[in-house]
Write a structure and sequence with these properties.
- The protein is mostly helical and 865 residues long.
- The protein has a domain of 87 residues: Tetratricopeptide repeat domain (Serine Threonine Protein Phosphatase 5, Tetratricopeptide repeat, Alpha Horseshoe).
- The protein contains 49 helices and 2 strands.
- Strand 1 and strand 2 form a beta hairpin.
- The N terminus is likely disordered.
- InterPro entries: TPR-like_helical_dom_sf, TPR_rpt.
- It comes from Solidesulfovibrio carbinoliphilus subsp. oakridgensis.
- Belongs to the Tom70 family.
Length: 865
């Protein structure tokens, strides 16, 4: 045998056969010891993981891999240990190495998927979990993590489906059961969530998470007693459960107010657990309840520093809102909704705050999002319908009202709103059907009965209107209101004694209801019994001493009687309310009494309280102009323009028209067209100026142009009809009037306009027919009543009716000199000369330049001597 060469020039001695055997035995023994050492190390690491010391296990697994980097089992266990340790990045790194092998170990795609879910790498996680499910489709754990992955991306439907699949495979997976219930809650599928949590607790009665979910669902169902009982069960079983103690106190706060028990819990939690937010949240809620909102903000902010939570952001938003910091409140709500897009109350609150800030479009957007997540939120459908109704978008509002089914709380109101829309759009039969359905669903719904009464009154179905208000089951205040409305119908029918009796009953049933007093006051005014009318206002002021409207109404009656000092006192008491209208009435009175300086001071005070009051600014500008200070007047008018450009244009147009500066007037009217070229209004206004300067062809051209840009314009049709009637083109004029009457949602006004056109053309009988048709549909048209009164006053057989209409017009518009003139003339024609003279003196004082009033006053004065 040749010697074995070790290196060049040297030889190694040959081993004997015996020596070789010994050497091999030693090598085998060494390998056996190493394998025994690895087995022990793996067992020790597994024991450490089981004991909760995953960190120690990581050290052992890494040591094994340093010895043998190809040890797949050690790397799998290392990846698992990292996952248990809460280090998904390291877990995923180890698992990825194994998944990339040609022969990856079993379950590695599941482990990698779990780590990727923890890293929020949802798409990659789902790929790995799908790879595992392709091998093991019945892996309950894999389906659980598919649910977790979808839950992270707020894909709640997919998450719930995956959790349900996992639970179907293994009913003992309590954690999955809890996740499924929580997901159903987030989906607002409360009945399904409740069924699942009840099944969970039937199998696991003491499960802490399940009991918490049950209490949450009970709270969402507004079953506060049950929720309170569940939290008390939790507190008995788990005394250190801070969340349960907090929630019990929260429910007590909601149901019983800021009680001493709640206060003690709040203080205890804050003192015992100063590094947890629950105590400070409760303290903040106590502050909110007590109205100390600044302190509430402080407590909620402290809670957020300890642990940012959507609930606390929501509470902080409420505190900011009550402090008037709407922008900060909106910012907090945005954080809530970023984390929980389905948060119903937060989105509703955000919508309402946008409404408060006149951001209607943003409010509509938020409400639409509410319906995306909560399609059965009928209160929000009702609100959306109302918002579109306020915009006169009847089609959209009807669509939302129609989406509210019968049987839910909001259905009666939806039918009412539909009835109102149909009534306003000239569909009385549909309106009646909807209102009848409302009353059928809610017999005590007085607003629906009032709407149906209004519909019947338009149709002159007065007996039916009165009967609608005879409803059992109404509350005492509603009965008082119903009596008041029935009384108004009786007055229209001439049943005055019954009406007065009902109004007195209404006052007894609800002494603070103002309408009966006003109705009686108007009734006595129409009967020329001013002392009785004023007595009604005084009775009302006993019930409502600070009522601005009662003070101003009494002041108007006193002024008409010449009791100027007392009238001024009541107007000053009304102005103490700081309401713009009350200031304006006082200023108007002072101006009529030639106390211009005081009137200007009153308007200045009004503008301190109501800086953007257009009527106050316009009135002040007029007073300044009347006093000869054109510079101040124009400066005030510029303030008007800064707030409302159209109001400023209208006032300048009024001035130019009054001064008969026609070119300047046309220039101002043209600005309305420039502001809204696709609307008829500007063309109608300019046409009016043309007519006043006798440019009839120019006016006709503009009115036809108005109909071209806005074919549905009722106003353009009425004005064009009047112009053509004036020009003798009766047939074409009537065609436009007929179209307006047919298309107008308020045909009474169209009849009135045609009546005026007939009267201007000297066709009195035709005018009377249209006037009577107008007030048959709508009684409160003072101009129509006034015109009819003057016509009837000239006919002895109808003079009494003429006086009735004159009184009705005066009751609608008090202290108008021209309506007072008609009333005085009607009194004169009915042989009441002294009353006529008194009324006409008042008219003459209000309009000293009127020749007609002066003529009628002379007639009354000469007759009364």
């Amino acid at each position: 045998m040749q010697p074995v060469t070790r290196e060049k020039g040297k030889t190694m001695p040959r081993l004997s056969t015996g020596m070789m055997v010994v050497t091999m035995a030693l090598l085998l023994a060494l390998a056996s010891c190493r394998e025994q050492s690895r087995t022990d190390s793996m067992a020790e690491a597994a024991k450490l993981v089981a004991e909760g010391n995953a960190k120690g296990a990581v050290v052992i697994y890494k040591s094994l891999l340093e010895r043998d980097s190809e040890d797949k089992e050690a790397r799998v266990e290392l990846a698992k240990a990292y996952f248990v340790l809460g280090k998904p990045d390291q877990s995923a790194r180890e698992a990825e190495q194994l998944a990339a092998l040609a022969d990856p170990p079993a379950g590695i795609h599941l482990l990698l998927g779990k780590a990727l879910v923890a890293q929020a790498k949802t798409e990659e996680a789902l790929q790995e979990l799908s790879a595992h499910l392709a091998i093991d489709p019945d892996s309950a754990e894999a389906w659980e993590y598919v649910g977790h992955a979808h839950a992270r991306t707020k894909d709640l439907d997919e998450a719930a489906e995956a959790y349900a699949h996992s639970l179907a495979l293994d009913r003992k997976r309590v954690g999955v059961w809890i996740e499924l219930v929580a997901t159903r809650v987030l989906q607002n599928q409360i009945p399904e969530a409740q069924a699942q949590v009840e099944a969970l607790l039937a199998a696991n009665p003491d499960n802490q998470g399940g009991l918490h979910l049950l209490a949450q669902i009970q709270t969402m169902n507004n079953d506060m007693d049950a929720a309170l009982a569940t939290y008390r069960t939790l507190n008995a079983k788990y005394p250190t459960d801070i969340k349960s103690r907090y929630n019990e106190a929260f429910i007590l706060l909601v149901t019983q107010g800021a009680s001493e028990q709640v206060a003690q819990t709040a203080k205890s939690l804050a003192a015992d657990y100063p590094n947890l937010p629950e105590g400070y949240k409760l303290l903040g809620l106590m502050d909110l309840t007590r109205g100390t909102t600044a302190q509430a903000v402080t407590n909620f902010e402290r809670a957020l520093r300890l642990r940012p939570e959507s609930e606390t952001h929501f509470f902080l938003a409420q505190a900011y809102e009550r402090n008037g910091n709407l922008e900060l409140a909106i910012s907090e709500l945005r954080q809530v909704l970023d984390a929980s897009p389905r948060h119903l109350k937060a989105r509703q609150m955000l919508a309402n705050m946008n409404l408060k800030m006149d951001r209607t479009d943003e409010a509509i957007d938020e409400l639409q999002r509410v319906l995306t997540y909560h399609p059965d939120s009928y209160e929000d459908k009702l609100l959306l319908g109302d918002l579109y109704l306020s915009r006169k978008d009847f089609a959209k509002s009807l669509a939302f009202y129609e989406a509210i089914p019968d049987g839910v709380e909001q259905s009666a109101t939806a039918h009412l709103k539909k009835g109102l829309i149909f009534g306003d759009t000239g569909k009385p039969e549909q309106a009646e059907a909807e209102l009848r359905q409302t009353i059928g669903q809610s017999p005590e719904f007085l607003e629906a009965r009032i709407a149906l009464v209004a519909l019947y009154k338009q149709q002159q179905r007065l007996d039916e209107a009165a009967s609608v208000l005879e409803a059992p089951g109404l509350s005492q205040p509603d009965v008082a209101q119903a009596h008041t409305i029935r009384a108004a119908i009786f007055l229209q029918q001439g049943r005055t004694d019954e009406a007065v009796a009902l109004l007195e009953k209404a006052k007894t049933l609800n002494p603070k209801l103002a309408t009966p007093y006003y109705t009686l006051a108007k009734f006595y005014s129409q009967r020329m019994e001013p002392e009785k009318a004023m007595d009604q206002y005084r009775q009302l002021l006993i019930q409502q001493p600070q009522s601005p409207s009662a003070h101003t109404a009494l002041a108007a009656a006193l002024e008409a009687r010449g009791n100027f000092d007392e009238a001024q006192q009541h107007l000053e008491q009304a102005a103490a309310s700081k309401q713009a209208d009350a200031y304006l009435r006082l200023a108007g009175f002072l101006a009529r009494r030639n106390k211009i300086d005081l009137a200007e001071q009153t308007l200045g005070q009004c503008l301190k309280e109501n800086s953007k009051s257009i009527p106050a600014l316009v009135t002040l500008s007029r007073l300044q102009l009347a006093a000869g200070d054109e510079t101040k007047s124009l400066a005030t008018l510029r303030d008007v323009a800064a707030i409302d450009q159209k109001a400023a244009i209208a006032e300048r147009l009024r001035r130019e028209t009054a001064a008969k500066r026609w070119d300047q007037a046309e220039a101002e009217a043209t600005k309305f067209i420039e502001l809204a070229p696709a609307a008829a209004g500007g063309y109608i206004t300019l046409a009016s100026v043309k007519l006043q300067r006798e440019d009839v062809p120019g006016a006709e051209r503009l009115l036809r142009q108005a109909l071209e840009v806005e074919p549905a314009s009722i106003g353009a049709r009425l004005d064009l009809g009047a112009l053509l009637m004036r020009a003798g083109q009766v047939e074409e004029a009537n065609r436009y009037f007929a179209e307006a009457i047919a298309k107008s949602p308020k045909p009474a006004e169209a009849y009135a306009a045609r009546g005026m056109a007939w009267q201007a053309a000297g066709q009195t009988d035709a005018a009377v027919r249209d006037y009577e048709a107008a007030i048959g549909l709508q009684r409160n048209l003072p101009v129509v009543l006034n015109n009819l009164s003057m016509i009837y006053a000239e006919k002895p057989a109808l003079a009494g009716k003429g006086l009735e209409y004159a009184m009705a017009a005066n009751a609608l518009v008090e202290n108008n000199p021209f309506i007072l003139d008609t009333l005085g003339y009607a009194l004169l024609k009915n042989g009441r000369r002294n009353d006529a003279a008194a009324v006409l003196k008042r008219a003459a004082a209000l309009a000293p330049q009127s020749k007609d009033i002066a003529k009628h006053l002379e007639m009354a004065s000469s007759d009364s001597k």
